[in-house]
């Protein structure tokens, strides 16, 4: 074995430095250690509210060159001169290898309470998991932290934490760790009440003077109480005779969900492909596709004859099964395995799609959807989906700055 420090019987020193952070501390410490010809095995450093914790795991001074006591005395002298605290622990070997079964656990809270954090950490421990690392992904619009957990399989951890999340009123996503998380992916979103705040058919219905009738059918369908296909035909039939020029008005009335532009812009910069699939209408999704620079869009098409809606839809029916089928088609066209796709939706007709995707995110969804999806976001900001993918707020803002957005 070339890497002798990985051997468990080789003596090593763990040097921990605490104190007020400022430039030059890391350089200073390693300059002191260099005086003894020591090699670096590992370095970890965090700064929280201006206070530094720097841990350096280094080889033990070689026999004859210097004693451990001399290293200790010199490091302490340097730390004192810098008004820092130092702790030096002798031992053997490197860090213990992380256990098998590794997951990323993202927790979103608004606020994230100490009580929730305690409960989540306790549940991880109960499952046999160990928290190896923790860091903050975002403080805005929610507090998002990520735990790197090992020692427990992803599925049972996800199940245990889903129950805890529900009880605590926080959102938790559990995904397995590994290279696939960094691989290029495809994100496919539902449109109505996901990418946009509206239900498009209700906007049409307002112009047709049948808003209340349509809203009642939509709500029942989204609760899963009505067959989606029947309810779609029933609602579209109510629009019969409506002037097709209303399409332009509806396009202008559509309100994007907060964070939608940030989400799409960031995903595109990272090389993701992004699409929408909607039980609504191509008359609106095609416009969104152009406006937002989406790669894919699919929806039902309202039939128009002689400048008026006929009350029928034409083309491929996009219902619950259709959404899952279209996700698979987009993935094939994008050259992305299904395991590397992310689907986001709020309605019962999104469930097959959410379960077909590698990661299914229920977005401000009805309980029936929330309970069946891999993970749920219950904050009305679409950009929180970025945190579930391990992208930090800092990275989003830095990219915006570079592009002058
Ligand atoms: Mg929806």
Automatic annotation (TrEMBL):
GO terms for biological process: L-serine biosynthetic process. The active site is at 190 (nucleophile), 192 (proton donor). Keywords: Amino-acid biosynthesis, Hydrolase, Magnesium, Metal-binding, Serine biosynthesis. InterPro entries: ACT-like_dom_sf, ACT_dom, HAD-like_SerB, HAD-like_sf, HAD_sf, PSP, PSP_ACT. Pathway: Amino-acid biosynthesis; L-serine biosynthesis; L-serine from 3-phospho-D-glycerate: step 3/3. One of its GO terms (molecular function) is L-phosphoserine phosphatase activity. Residues 14-94 form the ACT domain. Its cofactor is Mg(2+). It holds the Pfam family HAD. It comes from the Bacteria. It catalyses: O-phospho-D-serine + H2O = D-serine + phosphate; O-phospho-L-serine + H2O = L-serine + phosphate. Its EC number is 3.1.3.3. One of its GO terms (cellular component) is cytoplasm. The keyword Metal-binding applies. Belongs to the HAD-like hydrolase superfamily. SerB family. This is Phosphoserine phosphatase. It comes from Wenjunlia vitaminophila.
């Amino acid at each position: 074995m070339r890497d002798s420090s990985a051997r468990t019987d080789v003596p090593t020193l763990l040097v921990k430095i605490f104190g007020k952070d400022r430039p030059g501390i890391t350089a200073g410490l390693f300059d002191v250690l260099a005086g003894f010809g020591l090699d670096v095995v590992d370095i970890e450093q965090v700064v929280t509210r201006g206070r530094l914790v720097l841990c350096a795991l280094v080889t033990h001074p070689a026999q004859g060159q210097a004693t451990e006591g001399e290293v200790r005395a010199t490091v302490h002298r340097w730390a004192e001169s810098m008004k820092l605290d130092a702790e030096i622990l002798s031992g053997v070997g490197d860090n213990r290898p992380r256990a098998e079964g590794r997951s990323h656990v993202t927790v979103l809270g608004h606020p994230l309470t100490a009580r929730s954090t305690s409960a989540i950490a306790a549940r991880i421990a109960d499952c046999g998991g160990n928290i190896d690392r923790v860091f903050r992904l975002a403080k805005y619009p929610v507090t998002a932290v990520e735990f790197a957990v090992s020692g427990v399989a992803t599925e049972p951890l996800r199940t245990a934490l889903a129950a805890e999340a529900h009880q605590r009123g926080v959102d938790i996503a559990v995904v397995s760790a590994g290279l696939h998380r960094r691989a290029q992916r495809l994100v496919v979103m539902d449109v109505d009440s996901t990418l946009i705040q509206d239900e498009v058919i209700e906007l049409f219905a307002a112009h047709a003077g049948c808003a209340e009738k349509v809203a009642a059918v939509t709500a029942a369908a989204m609760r899963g109480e009505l067959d989606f296909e029947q309810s779609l035909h029933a609602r579209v039939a109510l629009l019969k005779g409506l002037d097709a020029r209303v399409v332009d008005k509806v396009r202008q009335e559509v309100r994007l969900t907060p964070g939608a532009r940030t989400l799409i812009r960031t995903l595109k910069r990272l090389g993701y492909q992004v699409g929408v699939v909607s039980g609504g209408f191509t008359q609106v999704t095609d416009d969104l596709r152009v406006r937002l620079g989406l790669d894919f869009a699919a929806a039902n098409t309202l039939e128009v004859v002689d400048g008026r809606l006929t009350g029928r839809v034409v083309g491929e029916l996009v219902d619950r099964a259709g959404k899952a089928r279209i996700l698979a088609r987009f993935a094939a066209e994008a050259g992305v395995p299904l395991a590397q796709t992310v689907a986001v939706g709020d309605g019962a007709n999104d469930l097959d799609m959410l379960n077909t995707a590698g990661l299914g995110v229920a977005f401000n969804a009805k309980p029936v959807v929330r309970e069946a999806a891999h993970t749920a976001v219950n904050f009305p900001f679409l950009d929180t989906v970025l945190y579930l993918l391990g992208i930090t707020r800092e990275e989003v803002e830095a990219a915006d700055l570079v592009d002058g957005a």
